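Task 17 of the worksheet. Students: predict the tertiary structure of the chain below and write it out as structure tokens. Keep your answer in the requested format; marks are given for formatting as well as content.
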Amino acid sequence: MDLTPYHYKAYGLSIASEIPLPPLPTSVPTTADLTIRREQLPGRPPVEATKIYRAGLNARFAQQGLDYLWLDWSPLISFTAVSGNELLVDTTQTDEDLVSLFTLSEALGLILFQKGYFLLHGSAVRIGSKGVVFLGEPGAGKSTTVAACAQKGYTVISDDMVCIQVNETGNLLLIPAFPQIKIWQSTIDGLQLHREKMAPVREGVDKFSWYDSIKFEENAVPLTAIFVLLPPRKPGSTTDPIPASRVPVELLHHFPLADALLKGKSLEDYFKKSVAIAQTIPLFRMSRPADFAGLHEFVTFLKSRLT
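Model answer:
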């Protein structure tokens, strides 16, 4: 008998969890692809610093092959991803929202990496029948652009971490995450969204989770294009294609997990999938309008690029 109290769906996985994960859509109990449970973690290999920050804390990483991956935000919380089907959570925290925030981050990304998905730090939407990914440095406007797309009625696929299935035939599919966009107060004001429908996010004083009224994609969507957003410039926007030979390096720059994961066979696999993406879809560098007034026109411009 399954005694796990919570059952969810995210990234195409049936998840059985001992801890509540509020942003995730609930599902009926079934055979779990992933089990999340609390456990005091045993000793681990030496950890090293990463580029990963969450709620102002820098994560440390360790691994024992690819079957045991550690992500450590001590003294707050630590995770072990086991063979792509088990995520162990070591914490004394009783704040459910805080535990959920850290669990549904790069910690879950370790499981997706173990399952062989291609991951990017970015956001994705469906425009028409086509899946579009937005990459960019912090502050480039990934989530703001997705929020503007959602406001126009387009369907959200993911925010913060993009999960791509690259199969042997070269088909590229975006795997839906869960219905949430994390946006700053300035975006809420600029797009004139209703904050009463949003919940505060613990990782930013003025950051909020928009999930209640957005349209969320539930099925895998063909990936059609990737846009690397540049800091806004005036007037309007510009679009420049990225040469296919530069695409693997560009995508590597947006890998969301610890860089130490990409070595040996894992680096070779990531590079091969990057080449498959470069050979299948276009990538563009693009600047969006500096003002919110032009953002919806920018979204319309994106649609025109895809038709």
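Marker's comment: The helical segments are 96-114, 142-151, 185-191, 247-252, 265-280, 295-305. The CA atoms of residues 78 and 92 lie 10 Å apart.
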